[in-house]
Amino acid sequence: MKAFKTIYSHGHFIDVETQQPLVLIQGEEYTITAKDKAFKTTDSKLKLGDPLNSKEKAAWAENEFGNGNYVKILNAREQLFFRVGNSRRVEGDENHQYIFVCNLLEDLFLYRLKGKKGDEEGHWRLAECKCALDRCILGGLTLSEKVPAKSLNALFNNTVQFYFSMQRSAAANAFNTFFLYKPGMRISFQGATNQLYEGLSNLRKQILVTIKQNQ
Known about the structure:
The protein is an alpha+beta fold. 22% of the residues lie in helices and 24% in strands.
């Protein structure tokens, strides 16, 4: 058994004597002793404001984008899934890729960029939408925190930063990364990688078809 006197700084335990970080190994058991006030059960960095209900979210979209410049594509409480594949694998990792299910805490909207006609896919972007991880269904990771975010792109970023820091890029295109989830679906890593499921990109294409038909 080893014992270290450490200071916790910016997400790392620093050895007081050597000033070197202690690299903890996933899955190993540690005994940590400190003053009562040195522990918290909630992480202030993960706090998220209360989600808006449907009426409030619609009013927000109207104020933010203007009449005719937005369209709702999914309701709050619907679920999406996404894959995280890590180019670097650290000791103790369950796998090198994982599939997560997340919950929409608000209605999800597309909005049209200013100055654009709306007749091309790139004219439409995803609006902010509070969301949070629900569970990992492939890869073997048990969530210690159901990471929240103010948007789907931010959720992917936060998930990587929280669980897989420095193992891959935290950037992603939500249209090509998030897919509709229904209980009982048969999902595979390969299917997610090759975008074989109905995703946000498909929903945007459907909206575009409707817009062109109405023009």
